[in-house]
Amino acid sequence: MLEIKNLHASIDDTKILKGLNLKVSTGEVHAIMGPNGSGKSTLASVIAGREDYDVTEGKIDFMNNELSELSPDERAREGIFLAFQYPVEIPGVSTTNFMKTAVNQVRKSKGEKPLDAVEFLKLMKEKMKLVNIKQELLSRSINEGFSGGEKKRNEIFQMAMLNPKLSILDETDSGLDIDALKIVSNGVNTLRSKDNATIVVTHYQRLLNYIVPDFVHVLMDGKIVKSGDKNLALELEEKGYDWIKVKN
Amino acid sequence: MSKDDKILKEFTSKEYEHGWSVDFDVDQAPIGLNEDIVRLISKKKEEPNWLLNWRLEAFSQFKKMKEPDWSNLNIPKINYQDISYYSAPKKKKMLKSMDEVDPELIKTFEKLGISLLEQKRLSGVAVDAVIDSVSIGTTFKDKLSELGIIFCSFSEAVKEHPHLVKKYLGTVVPSKDNYFSCLNSAVFSDGSFCYIPKGVRCPMELSTYFRINASNTGQFERTLIIADQGSYVSYLEGCTAPMRDENQLHAAVVEIHAEKDAEVKYSTVQNWYPGDKNGKGGIYNFVTKRGICFGNNSKISWTQVETGSAITWKYPSCILKGDNSIGEFYSVAVTNNYQQADTGTKMIHIGKNTKSKIISKGISAGFSQNSYRGHVNVIKRAKNSRNFSQCDSLLLGNTCGAHTFPYIDIENKSSMVEHEATTSKIGEDQIFYCLQRGIDEENAIALIVNGYAKEVLKQLPMEFSVEAQKLLSLTLEGSVG
Prior knowledge:
The complex is a heterodimer. By secondary structure, chain A is α/β, with parallel strands linked by helices. Helix content of chain A is about 40%, strand content about 30%. Chain A contains nine helices and twelve strands. Chain B is α/β, with parallel strands linked by helices. Chain B is built from 13 helices and 23 strands. In chain B, the strands form three sheets. In chain B, strands 5, 6, 8, 10, 11, 13, 15, 16, 18, 20 and 22 form an eleven-stranded mixed beta sheet that branches. Chains A and B meet through helix 2, strand 7 and helix 3 of A and helix 10 and helix 11 of B.
């Protein structure tokens, strides 16, 4: 589904990714771990197409498309979803309105009819249950005055609405208490299927108790320096990132 | 080029949608401004002597006045002798019903999306359409007259209800109030008149659609709304003008008089031709709008969505004379390319316990300049009065300007005034968030801008609100992409 080869990316002439390789197939969950400043969030942003970052070398192939040729909104319509570390506030725009615009534009790009109000509401009701989110919250300006937990649940709600092929969760666990973490993880697990894939970017092993990855990669200094299964995360938790540094 | 700049550049190239003109047979006054022209207009309208004299007095005053220069606008020199002050579609005979209206004219309305026939049948909106100064067809008059509501063209009101016109004309906006109101008083050609009798709640939205069609004509319409004790009316005004290279002048006057316990809601969607991308052509919109809350507990509320005109100079205001009266001003002003807007309001608190609320949302793009100018004045005897003002500016790109000029004069200690102001740039983060959900840049901007203006848009009647949202997106289309 996703194949990243020798990816180099920089922001304002500072090199952040320095030859990253990653392959993700359908049905898989990959965790990307690493210390602060290793380039985890940069990787997420580059896949989503954030233009602040310059890709200086390498390729990203997604479903046989060269991603560098697609704009961020085209990537999204192809099925890439990024759950933001810091979800953005848009005053005066409700989540409902935001999602209606998004869902219908994605449908339009596939040649499908837009959902009418009744159909949309039905879809929304169904997906709301997944992350235990209330209608009242979705009628408010998106992310404005939301608690940390509400913001992250709202991200997963949007993910459920858009039903992406590849979901990237960027530090979704940050700022969550244990109850919210369970709700969010439960939502993500329910959405897992053999037809989609998930990349979980995280600092801590904690989230991986709930969203169990098939692969764990350690990102350091712009490269993946070690890959393994879920036990690698446990080992990291125990020994710290220095353990890998020393080994290398 | 940064992402923002690129977006903006592409979002700045939408052509004006209502840019067409229709060839009617037009009855037009010779170009120029002098006493004979004033007499000619009055004669064409078969006006009584008192009104001719009122016009002549205004004209002699006008000759002594100078154009105001205090606004934050760069107004090119206007040659007032180079304009025709009267233009009427030629009437072949008196029209008895809508069926007799010139088919070309009906087409015009259809292009504007306000087919009178449709309106009449479906929407329950009574429309008094004004094209080039003369009111063409007034619908629903019968239904309204059953309730004693008078809704007709200004000329008709002069003929049918002279006592009302004479009593109220110029009482809220005296002719010598300012340069443009004075010019209007001398040469106004038509407009709308509305009277709601005691205790009547007008059951439908009253709507006037203005349009400048003939080239080189100024439009000087005059609107007078009188709400008698305990009455209520919601009045809508929409404006468009065809595309022309030269600049056209529009200097209207609107007066509202609210008696005890009466409420008037006045909503405008102004979409006059703004000129082209390089700032050529476009309407000069110099409008004086003012309402007086004359009786106790009365309320006047202005809502405006200003998207058009090359230059906008407009301050819909309220004089809160009655005790406990309320004045409101909700405004969204969008400027793009080389448009200039200097708009805002005046709230004059005279009665006790009077309240006013000002919500102004400016949106600037391209090379435009957008100013809010407001004056809140609470006089000594207006004890326990309140004002709340919120003036927000949103900038798209870094070649446009937003300015805020709030003036506050409070002459007693029991009153309270609050003023909040913010200026923000449309966030790259917000746009990226939308894009990441599959929404393209144009729709993203429309979504963000409409969200920003929501507080004002929700004040508009439903069908107007939808039109206004579309207009906002259209005006900014091409300034992001």
